[in-house]
C-alpha cells in the first residue's frame, strides 16, 4: 500500500489543489458575481434562458447549483479516470510489473493497487462534498447540509463507475496513453448519446450533477444500484484479465 500511495501522490495532490482552487474562486465571491450579473442584467437574462438567476442570491442554491451542479460535478468522471489510468498500464510500460509479481501474488498486487486508489479517491471526493458544509460553518452562513450528503453518494458512485471503466483499460493496455484516450472518448460518447431520450441512461452526468436532489427527490436509488453493480462487475473483469495476462 505504501508504494501505491507514493505512486499516486502527485495525482492526488494535484486533484486536491485544483478542486480547492475551484471552490475558493467560487464560494467567497457570491456577492461579486451577483454584482456583475446585476450590472449586465440584460445580457445575463438573454443568455441565462430558464435558469433562475435571482435564486443565486440564496446561499444554498448558489453553492448547490454552482459547486455540485457545475464545477465539481463536471470533473467527477475525469477524477475517476485520473486515479485509475496508470495503475497497471504504467507498470507494464516501465517493465516493473515482473518485479512486483516476483515478490507478491497477482491477487495481492491487484487488490493493493485497486483498493488503495479507490480509498484515496473516496476520501478526496467525500472531502469535496462536505467542503461547503465546513466553509459555511466557518464564515457563518446558514447552509442546509443534508443535500451535501446526498450529493456525496452520487459523486462517490459516479467516480467509482468511471474509475472501474478506466481500470479495465489499464489492465488491458500496456501503455498509459490508450487508457486515457479510451476513457475520455467513452465519456464524450456516452454524454452525447445520452442526449437521445431512449439512451439517456448512458449519460452519467445526469446522475452525478444530481438535478433531482435539488428538486427534493433525494438520492436516485435505482441508478445508484445500477452503477454500483456495473462498477463491481468491471473491477472483477479487470482482475480476471490481470490474473491471466502474460507479463
Q: Your description of this structure?
A:
By secondary structure, the protein is mainly α. It has one domain. The protein contains 13 helices and no strands. The chain has helices spanning 2-7, 9-24, 30-39, 41-48, 59-84, 89-94, 97-103, 106-139, 146-172, 177-193, 204-208, 211-214, 221-244. Helix 5 (59-84) packs parallel to helix 9 (146-172), helix 9 (146-172) packs across helix 10 (177-193) and helix 9 packs parallel to helix 13 (221-244). The chain is elongated.
Question: What's this model, at a glance?
Answer:
By secondary structure, the protein is an all-alpha fold. It has helices at residues 2-7, 9-24, 30-39, 41-48, 59-84, 89-94, 97-103, 106-139, 146-172, 177-193, 204-208, 211-214, 221-244.
What topology emerges from the helices and strands here?
Blueprint: H1 2-7, H2 9-24, H3 30-39, H4 41-48, H5 59-84, H6 89-94, H7 97-103, H8 106-139, H9 146-172, H10 177-193, H11 204-208, H12 211-214, H13 221-244
Helix pairs in contact: 2-5, 2-8, 5-8, 5-9, 5-10, 8-9, 9-10, 9-13
What is the strand content? under 5%
Largest sheet: none
Helical content, roughly?
over 70%
Task: Count every beta strand, where a strand is a DSSP E run of 2 or more residues.
Answer: 0
Task: Assign an overall shape.
Answer: elongated
Poorly predicted regions are none
Derived from helix and strand composition plus strand pairing, the structural class reads mainly alpha
- Nearest-integer average pLDDT: 87
Amino acid at each position: 500500500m505504501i508504494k501505491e500511495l507514493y505512486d499516486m501522490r502527485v495525482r492526488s495532490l494535484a486533484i486536491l489543489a485544483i478542486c480547492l482552487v475551484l471552490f475558493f474562486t467560487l464560494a467567497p465571491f457570491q456577492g461579486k458575481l451577483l454584482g456583475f450579473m446585476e450590472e449586465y442584467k440584460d445580457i445575463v437574462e438573454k443568455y441565462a434562458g430558464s435558469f433562475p438567476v435571482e435564486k443565486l442570491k440564496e446561499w444554498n442554491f448558489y453553492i448547490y447549483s454552482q459547486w455540485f451542479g457545475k464545477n465539481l460535478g463536471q470533473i467527477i468522471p475525469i477524477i475517476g479516470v485520473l486515479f485509475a489510468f496508470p495503475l497497471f498500464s504504467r507498470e507494464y510500460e516501465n517493465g516493473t510489473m515482473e518485479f512486483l509479481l516476483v515478490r507478491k501474488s497477482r491477487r495481492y498486487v491487484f487488490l493493493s493497487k485497486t483498493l488503495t486508489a479507490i480509498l484515496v479517491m473516496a476520501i478526496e471526493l467525500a472531502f469535496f462534498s462536505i467542503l461547503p458544509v465546513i466553509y459555511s460553518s466557518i464564515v457563518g452562513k446558514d447552509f442546509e447540509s443534508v443535500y451535501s450528503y446526498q450529493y456525496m453518494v452520487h459523486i462517490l458512485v459516479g467516480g467509482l463507475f468511471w474509475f472501474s471503466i478506466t481500470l479495465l483499460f489499464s489492465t488491458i493496455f500496456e501503455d498509459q496513453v490508450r487508457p486515457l484516450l479510451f476513457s475520455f472518448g467513452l465519456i464524450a460518447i456516452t454524454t452525447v448519446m445520452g442526449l437521445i431520450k431512449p439512451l439517456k441512461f448512458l449519460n452519467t452526468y445526469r446522475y452525478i450533477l444530481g438535478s433531482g436532489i435539488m428538486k427534493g427527490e433525494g438520492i436516485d436509488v435505482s441508478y445508484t444500484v445500477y452503477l454500483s453493480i456495473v462498477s463491481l462487475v468491471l473491477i472483477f473483469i479487470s482482475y480476471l484479465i490481470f490474473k491471466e495476462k502474460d507479463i
